[in-house]
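Please check this:
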Amino acid sequence: MSTPSGVEEVIPEFADAFPFESFNRMQRAALPAVLDSDDNVVVSAPTASGKTALAELAICRTLRRGGTALFLAPLRALTNEKENEWERFESLGYSVYVVTGERDLNPRRAERADILVMTPEKADSATRKHDSPRYSFVTDVDCCVIDEVHLLDSDERGAVLEVTVARLRRLCDPRVVALSATMSNVGDIADWLDAPVDCTFQFGDDYRPVPLHAGVETYAHGDNAFADKYRRLYRALDLAEPHITDGGQALAFVASRQDTVRAAEKARDELTERDIDVGARGDYDFHTDAQELQNDTLRQSVVDGVGFHHAGLSKADKDRVEEWFRAGKIQLLFSTSTLAWGVNLPARCVVIRDTKHHDPLEGEVDMSPLDILQMLGRAGRPGYDDAGYAHVVCDGSDADRYRQLLEDGKPIESRLAGGLDAHLNAEIALGVIDDLEDVMGWLETTFYYARAESAPDRYDAGDSLRERVSSTLERLVEDGFVEQSGLEIEPTPLGRLASQYYLRLETAAAFHRLCERTEELEESPVLRTVADAAEFDSVSARRDEREAFGAVLGGEGDDLEAGNRKVLAILRAGMDGTTPGELQSDAWVIRRNAVRMLAALRAFCERFAAPRDASLVRRVEARVEHGVSASAVGLTAVDGVGSGRASKLASEGLTTPADLRDAGVDGLVAAGLSEGVAERVLEQARTLPDIAVEWTDVPETVARGENAMAEVTVRNGSDGEPAGIRVTVNGVEMTAETRYLGTTTLPVGVFGGDAETLTYEVEVTFPELPLPAVTDARTVDVE
């Protein structure tokens, strides 16, 4: 009996959720497994063959039964796209909620949602916190749809997807529906997910809605890398030109955001020289709409039929570019590879101009084979083109490698082995694993295990795989991340912090060693420890960069590797907002990663060192993030005061929230703020700690050999705040405590000893705010 094709016939109550009336051949073949079975499903099919409809069918089955569906999207941009697309489900009375790192989580909405949309990274975070009230919703998932499951083979993100799905299956055992572009080892994915044979599908190129012709093209080298880039561009235009002149469109993938802009500018000039008729300058409405674009270069380019698309554009500009490309108003579009994973923008011709890209943390690297195949799959526009044409432009020495990739595809491999220690530690820290039997049980839930069983020549299969995991556990115990008693395993505070902040274990160990130093923590070792972190080991430094960071650092850190010293220079210069031009290309990414690690180091200090150390790290963190001087950084604790405003106020002698409160609105206006801004800044400054210190019964003198008891009271006149309070005499610590500070009183013993003068000092520090320490002192003479 054949499967019905009409949406209304197959799933009438959800017919309005689908933007078409009939399912295609591929969808009909997989439909019974997705809609009529409870089994897990794996589908591998060519790009643009209609896999999204299968995801939606799986969601419909879940909703029909009153359950909650989770959709794992490979990119944050795609989560936003799904939110817009799935308003169709909202119109049927179902709730769709996107959970990403850029949005504040609303636990109530998440708990009530029928469809949750996340990236693998956010799902990883949520499942790690599943036992907290904010994230408990993740344990109620009944069906997990994995879009682009071949992301498992991504060097950076594959292991995250793998352990997240394995963890989710242990937490709530949802049905899993995994969708992928064409891959050669779909059976391995099915074995991992326990999908039966009749629920495992591998659709070949004959299921592509538009046939694909793919090839590899080489180019003649120029005098340097810059010249090579333009030679590849001209080669790309040669390949795109016949399709553009025939009324088709071309999509060209380049290495970076900046490259999309430069290539579009150069292509406009080249197309004019070749007398190729593109553009819509006669279309008055389009010309008028183009003037609304926020990006000046894009505004000038699109009217000539050439556009560019990258993550740095505003959402409004990106939406317009996508709309105009779909409508044919833009005939040639330059983009980064992220577009291939996100928005569905097919074109008759796809050209990959750049097969390498610059990674701030690794230098020049090859684009992954996954990215190459994903980009090429965008060739061919269903309903418009009879065929798609895809080309890789590369160096002659790489041509055979790419030809083999196009011919044979690529098996999906597990990337878990590279970070096995950190991921095993995370599962122990989360309580997923609490004995030796659990360790092996967890291993068997991973794709790593399934793939090793299938390809033992590529992996340590069988007993050797278990031995590797066992030795990894032994190292975790030896290095202090895990404690073992008999068969029982539990995490240490060090292991929990490493997991909580997603640190490489060698970085966590270095942070721990820094906290255990006996001397007072200072800025230089903090910066050095972060710059020397394992997360930055792959950073490379060009010759011009080495000269620049040498000028910034002098002799500081000269024993570090060049890449780590480059990181140190970027942090040092960035703390004052004076990054040299030679270091700016990678500075943003490096600073962003450093801020994350400084936040982790601050938590290590709170746990293993002292509040004053955590306070120092918090101030360094704020300086790196905002690029302000040491005198101005305390002002960044005030909501509404960024780097520019903080520097401006500091130049007027206002350097702390207390100074702002003392200045009042008039003083802030005199310092250059408008009255409205001054009122808002003052209001926020009043919410920050306002410390008053009162000494009681402290004598002016004490006889040698005598003693007296006094007190010091610390009051916070604003909202309570975690604080460290430390009392010293002549620099020697007498009392120290950490508390949520409202009002506290500490005893002070006055002892007449050998010293002629006793100086008592109370210091109040704030580990979570970039505020300077508040100190107050009293002196007692010994007679």
Summary: The first strand starts at residue 41 and ends at 44. The first helix runs from residue 7 to 10.
